[in-house]
Amino acid sequence: MDSPSGKPSLLERLSALLSREPEDQNDLLARLRLACDRNLIDADALTIMEGALQMSDMQVREVMVPRAQMDVIHIDDSVDKIATFVVNTAHSRFPAIGEGKDDVVGIFLAKDLLRYYAGREFDLRDMLRPAVFVPESKRLNVLLREFRVSRNHMAIVVDEYGGVAGLVTIEDVLEQIVGDIEDEFDFDEVGDGIRLDQNGRYRVKATTEIEDFNQAFATHFSSDEVDTVGGLVIRHLGRLPRRGETVELEGIKIQVMRADSRRVHTLSVEPRAVEPDAPTQ
Fold it and tell me: 195: which DSSP letter?
């Protein structure tokens, strides 16, 4: 149908651009980007469509919260201890564990604390929702469909040996479609995990392994309990740190430059007087 002005409508122009069936996903993406260049769709719409297409090629392991950064409650914790932990971490859901992180007995919803403070009977075990377990290799589009059907918002990720590798939420999946907010502390995904900044400090990905961090900064942190430098900071504080928070370990100052309610992303490291053997830009 022609528009009142006699000019092709937006839908007609977009249909004309996609009149020939795309050969593959790359071809489709190229046409969508061309449509954006011609102002047929805006940049936000393009980002969402690109994210939706690329998500089908991604696996849970690529977006999950690693085991070391999981905030969990213990099945034997007191209500007051749980309430304090909920306030400090500001999550709405928590895996509840028994002997350790491999022993997830259910999912606790923070809102269920209202029963206790309303004077009603409260039994943590009775409050737990069943935990959903998914393999690291599950594709995100499949997981999103399962989240929608089951109305679950969190799943526990297990490795090939059945051990807990991390957790994933529906927000982690949706973020791959709508994108997250990048700031000046973000890294390119393919870039080095340790970079020299202009002020003489080093920007370090929180997922940098302890061994690599030790080699770069001549430190001797143990990797027995944590695998990453982000996990090291979390273990030292006993909680997820806030942006701007600073800790000093082995004479090295580590400041949290980027973090959200579930994980640490980027750290700023001020080394000791001895120059570390770290990569530079």
Answer: E
Entry pTM: 0.56
Judging by DSSP bridges, how do beta strands 73-74 and 194-196 pair with one another? unpaired
CA dihedral 28, 174, 207, 26 (to 10 degrees): 0
Tokens representing 90 are 């500001």
Integer Cα distance of 7 and 18 in angstroms:
18
Map residue 209 onto helix, strand or coil.
strand
Encode 28-37: b = buried (16+ Cβ within 10 Å), e = exposed.
Answer: bbeebeebbe
Q: Give 157's strand partners.
A: 134, 166
Residues 6+ apart with CB under 8 A from 256: 233, 241, 242, 243, 244, 245, 246, 264, 266, 267, 268
**Interior/surface letters 42-56, b for 16+ CB within 10 angstroms, e for the rest:** eeeebeebbbebebe
Does residue 18 contact residue 41 with C-beta atoms inside 8 Å?
no
Mean pLDDT by 10 residues, the chain (281 residues): 54 60 71 76 72 79 85 90 84 90 92 84 86 92 89 91 90 73 48 71 88 90 87 87 83 82 80 56 46
